[in-house]
Amino acid sequence: MRSFVRAVAPFALAGLLVTPAFAAPGLRLSWDHCFADGQVVNKAFACGTNLGSEVLDLSFESPVAASDRDGVELTLHLVSSDGTLPDWWRASGVGACRSVALASAIIDPNSIDCDQPIPTLNGAGGIADLVQFTPTVWRLRAAVAVPPPSTFSVGPGTETFAMQLIVRNIRTVGTGSCAGCTTPICIGFGSANVVAAANTDPIFIVAGAPNTGGGPANVTWQGAYTSGYSFPGAASSVDFGCAPSKPVAVRGSTWGALKAMYH
């Protein structure tokens, strides 16, 4: 993945709204705009058009200050509520039903409250792959970088925008459409490796655990519910549970209510 960061550096590339509190340093994920502008946790799409796109913003707050960063390596995880990622979400790679539906951008003009240093430094970015990681979890890797000698700063108290993922709505309906747009999906921002030009002292930020019910690094699609998400950063260790909707709490009857039922 490090080589991917270096490869893209010289080239330019083209709900439920929750106002975030002052969160601890870590990973951030939101539909429509960056987390600092108010996290949009769930995206409900009617799946009735091939026009337009849905956008997902990845950002982070570094736990330590540094002014010599030149790239970020990003990992996301996707899991379906039924355990099988539908064709509609297989949006990248040879043989995928919607192989050109997934794109990326290194700037979001709709995001105001997060720092966006990479575009001003002639940065570039792109998606490396979207592959099946475990029997139920799919992994997406991407990266952004700036060309030498440019560097950017990160640190506590600053939410840094890394990348926007663009999910185009093509092949949703009609001839050649791909099934599964209405399937509830959970998405987790697993890790951000904020690297330095000297290839030393990377700042590696992970989602941690267990994030039941979601959190700053989790979003959903079509009303899904994150029943648990843990990614410590190990190469093959991810625990991700996804339910089609939030469980309904069962309220116990009082003794008085039970007696009333029989009188």
Structure description:
5% of the residues lie in helices and 38% in strands. By secondary structure, it is mainly β. The protein has one domain (2-260). Strands 4, 6, 8, 9, 10, 12, 13 and 14 form an eight-stranded mixed beta sheet that branches.
Features of the shown structure:
263 residues; mainly beta; 8-stranded mixed β-sheet; 4-stranded antiparallel β-sheet
TL;DR?
It is built from two helices and 16 strands.
In terms of topology, how is this protein built?
Layout: H1 2-8, E1 17-18, E2 26-31, E3 39-40, E4 42-43, E5 53-61, E6 66-80, E7 102-105, E8 124-132, E9 137-145, E10 152-154, E11 160-168, E12 185-196, E13 203-206, E14 218-221, E15 225-230, E16 239-243, H2 255-260
Parallel strand pairs: 4-14
Antiparallel strand pairs: 1-3, 2-5, 5-11, 6-9, 6-10, 6-12, 7-11, 8-9, 12-13, 12-14, 15-16
The topology string of helices and strands comes to HEEEEEEEEEEEEEEEEH
Determine the mean pLDDT: 87
Helix-strand category: mainly beta
End-to-end distance, in Å? Answer: 70 Å
Q: Based on DSSP secondary structure assignment, what is the total number of beta strands? A: 16
Helical percent range?
Answer: under 10%
Poorly predicted ranges (pLDDT <50, ≥5 residues)? 6-22
Beta-strand portion reads 35-45%
The number of domains is 1
Shape: globular
Number of helices: 2
Radius of gyration: 20 Å
Largest sheet: 8 strands, mixed
